[in-house]
Amino acid sequence: MSTISSRPQPSPSSATDPLALVDVDHVRFFVGNAKQAAFFYGHAFGFTVEEINDLTTGNRASAQYLLTQGNIRIVLETPLVEDHPATQEIARYGDGIKDVAFTVFDAEKAYEQAIRNGGERAAEPRTAKDHRGSVTTASVKTFGRVVHSFVSRSGEYALPEVKRGGLFMPGFRKFGAFALNDFNKEHACGLKFFDHCVGNVELGKMNHWVKWYENVLGFSMFKHFDDKDISTEYSALMSKVMASGNHLIKMPINEPAPGKKKSQIQEYLDWHSNTPGIQHLALRTDDELHSVAELRQRGVDFLAIPDAYYEQVWERVDSRLRAHGHSPVKEDHDRIRRLGILVDADEEGYLLQLFTKPLQDRPTLFFEIICRRGSQSFGKGNFKALFESLEIEQGRRGNL
What digits encode the pLDDT tens for the residues 50-67? Predict the structure, then answer.
């Protein structure tokens, strides 16, 4: 998806499947101050503050900012009234992700099928329309505070039009002249689309939610990591990666595993009112070195990778690539080390990845920047180095 077209596409017959997922329509954050959050994500990560729906457009309940970059769409929503659903959630959890929304061919039919499959209602189908077209949405509950909305679009609100810069849905207007948007056009960060979205659940609940994604949304297991794969001397976790039928949408589900000290999953739950939720978004780029360098220049704080990691990584990665008939890592090795980027390989190729530190005061949300050169895995060879870095940060926060 350097380009959007490189993303797996639905098959022609999928239009007959109510739960065929066309794309990640958007990810909705509930935040305490959408105006300030929009400036943060625009400045730090290069997002365009594209559209707004607030008091100036007649919305008396909330302020919503649409941020875009490549095929990534993030909606930041702040409640303006006491009885808005986000008001209590923000007080309880802080800023965080509420909704991972999927574009479908018919939102009402997708919703009805999900309910028949055992899903629980979050929001009944509703349609917003004007002379440009219509957008229908309906939502089901998944783990903890999170919902999945189904979104179907028509007319000028159809997804191809939105990708070309059309209005997101009725009620939104273009944000207008903004110096930060002009700067971001000149200094692009190169983020293209959502690669995956990771959820944290309580100990013993991972398999429950694996079954939920299988039964309700028709996902299947893509990868599985246990505490032997993801562990250090002190902590461990288990993870199962769920994927939609065409592997377009990937949702890893993590749960803590017993260890000498507290895992990052348990730290998340402790600071998220013991409620499951979305821990991080992985954003894909075609050029990891450019994206990470630009983000560092903007002040993004990434996890620190110890120098000892680079004393062993090239032999491990390049030998595995050669064993499977692939060329070695083409990116400059010394620059990878200077930028602190992690590298891993599997039978299909390699990947480059790096994780930010928490994006807010509670350690409950971070981003991953990932570039895939064939590999469709999640950096299994990096788990130990990554978790040791995470543990250093947990120790500094007093949460290990």
Answer: 999 999 999 999 999 999
Type of residue found at 2: S
Amino acid 115 reads: I
Handedness of CA 327, 330, 334, 335 (dihedral sign): negative
The size of the chain, in residues, is 400
Last residue of a domain, one of 152, 173, 188: 188
Task: Tell me which residue range forms the domain holding 81.
Answer: 4-188
Amino acid at 235: S
Residue recorded with tokens 């939104």: 172
Q: Could you say which of 152, 169, 188 is where a domain stops? A: 188
**Tokens encoding 39:** 């400036």
What's the CATH code of the domain at 310?
A: 3.10.180.10
Q: How many domains does the chain have?
A: 2
305-332 confidence digits (pLDDT tens): 888 888 888 988 999 999 999 999 999 9
Asked if 64 and 101 count as a contact pair (C-beta separation under 8 A), the reply is no
Strands 120-130 and 133-141: antiparallel
Global pTM value = 0.92
DSSP letter assigned to residue 204? T
Burial 61-70 (b: 16+ CB within 10 A, else e): ebbbbbbbbb
Neighbours of 162 (CB within 10 A): 25
Are residues 81 and 32 part of one domain?
yes
| Residues 199 and 317 placed together within one structural domain of the fold | yes
